[in-house]
Structure formats: C-alpha cells, structure tokens
From TrEMBL:
Domain ACT: 7-82
Catalyzed reactions: (6R)-10-formyltetrahydrofolate + H2O = (6S)-5,6,7,8-tetrahydrofolate + formate + H(+)
Transmembrane segments: none
Originating gene: purU
KW Hydrolase (keyword) present: yes
HAMAP family: PurU
SUPFAM superfamilies: ACT-like, Formyltransferase
Name of this chain's protein: Formyltetrahydrofolate deformylase
Record PROSITE patterns: ACT
Record's keyword annotation contains Hydrolase: yes
Role noted for this protein: Catalyzes the hydrolysis of 10-formyltetrahydrofolate (formyl-FH4) to formate and tetrahydrofolate (FH4).
Highest taxon, organism lineage: Bacteria
Amino acid sequence: MTDSRAILLVQCPDRPGIVAAISSFLFRHGANIIDFEQHTSEDEGGVYFTRLEFQTERIDLPLEDLKAAFALDVAKPFAMEWRLTLAAERKRVAVLVSKHDHALLELLWTWKRGDLRADVSLVISNHQDLRASVESFGVPFVHVPNSKDARPEAEARMAELLDGKADLLVLARYMQIVSPEFVARWPRRIINIHHSFLPAFVGADPYRQAYDRGVKIVGATAHYVTAELDAGPIIEQDVGRVSHRDSVDDLKHLGRDLERRVLARAVKWHCEDRIIVHGNKTVVFS
Ligand SMILES: Nc1nc2c(c(=O)[nH]1)N[C@@H](CN(C=O)c1ccc(C(=O)N[C@@H](CCC(=O)O)C(=O)O)cc1)CN2
C-alpha cells in the first residue's frame, strides 16, 4: 500500500501563534495530522522547531501548489525555514568506505531488513577489499582510488558517480578527507561516523589517542560533514566503558559495535526527515 504520509520540518523565531498557523493551514487544505513534535530553544531569544507528519489522501491541492501556499500563507509571516517531503519518496543513499566493513554492513543489513526508509544505491571505495561483500547485496561497487595527492581526480570521478544520482552520502569509516569544495556541493547531506566521542580525539587514529590519554570511556559520533574535519553538527553519539586492562585493539573492538549502531541510527533518522540543523547543532525528533 502506498505510504500517503508527508513530513513537515520547520524552524523559526519563537512567537505565539506558530502551532495555530501551521495546524489551521493543514486543516484548511484537508491534511490529517498524525504526529507532531516540537521544541523551543532559548538560544537567540527563542527558536521554535517542529516536525509534523500528516496524511495526504484528502489534500485539496497538488503538492507543489500546497508548498507554494504554505510558503506565502505561513512560512513568510513567521520567517520559517522549512521542508516538506513525502514519505513515499525514498532517499538514494551512497556509501563511501575504505577497508573497515562493520559500519557499511550494518547499513546494508538494516536496508535489506526493510528498516531503512531509503535505498542504498551505490558503494564507492578507495580499496577493492569490500567488493564481494557489497555485490552480494546486489549493490553496485565502484573502486575510486584516493589519496592526498590524487584528491582532485578522485573527487571528480566521485562527482560523476554521485551528482544527481544520490540524495545522501554516508562516510562509513571512509579514511580520506573530503575537500571543502566537494563538501560544499553536499550541504548537510554527508554523514560521517567518527570513531570517538567528539569533540575529543578528532582526526586519524582516535583509539590510539584515547589509549594514550588513559580514557575510561570510548565513543562514536555520527555527524554531518563540513569543511572542518570532524567538526560538523552532531546527530548521534554513544559510549562504552573501558579500563587500564584494555589494549588499543580492545578499544577498537568495543568501538566497532558503537560505531555501526550510531551510524545506522543517524542515517535512519536523516532518511525519515527527523533532523533539523540549526547552526552547528541538530534537533533530532527520534
Ligand atoms: N571534510 C571532511 N572529510 C572527512 C571527514 C570530515 O569530518 N570532514 N571525516 C573523515 C573520517 N575521519 C574521521 O572520522 C578521518 C579519516 C581520515 C583522516 C586522515 O587524516 N586521512 C588522511 C589519509 C589517511 C590514509 O591515507 O590512510 C588524509 O586524508 O590525508 C582523518 C579523519 C572522512 N573525511
């Protein structure tokens, strides 16, 4: 049966009347609201965030006309940033990976189980190691060598493969830094799993950094990718306890479970339009 839900995400300066304006607009146009969450932040004098799901069977306008009417009648008077999407429009997810398979496989398993409202359409890797694993899921695998010195050629090839063909890029332990120019073409549409509890231990080899620091927890962080390494808006995190008895490999072993689960949750929430980015932070209606 076709999924007839639409999702509306809004952020705007907080003031009385926002809920009434949105709900009365949707009511007037035949929408039936089936889920509604909101949050008001004290930042910047008050910022309002909401996520609504509504049924579209009785909407009295074509979707594009509904969006135009919302922009004029509601969004403009309340200075809203907003996005309206249809649940039936599944996002196309491309995954970039190097040699580690755990985060990638969790995504592929989640997708194959039907627990991801998206489709994994392509995997790109700078190594050949994971080709067989990826192709066993029926997903195309493309090898694109990459390195600090070959970055422009690699990213030109990746742009050919991705531009207009994917809605979200996921760096599933992809171990190459993506250039600011490449990132700029995918604003808030690249998710990375960093293998530490950011902001601690950015950059390469965070488990070695954590071991040398004598930490008592290790963590994983899923965040949107920005030009600044491992500094983008955090979407999801988790931690696990460690001790002096653990080696670097023990930290990595514990961390792998954290990484794969944290990334899967972040990707699922993005694909379900549950994330609003405000500045360098997120509001997640999970
Ligand atoms: N623009 C961004 N690119 C990438 C990010 C990011 O946040 N912004 N995250 C990384 C993943 N990552 C940590 O999570 C990470 C990966 C690799 C490196 C690194 O120093 N790589 C070296 C090469 C290492 C090698 O060849 O083995 C490099 O690219 O020069 C740091 C952090 C993914 N990209």
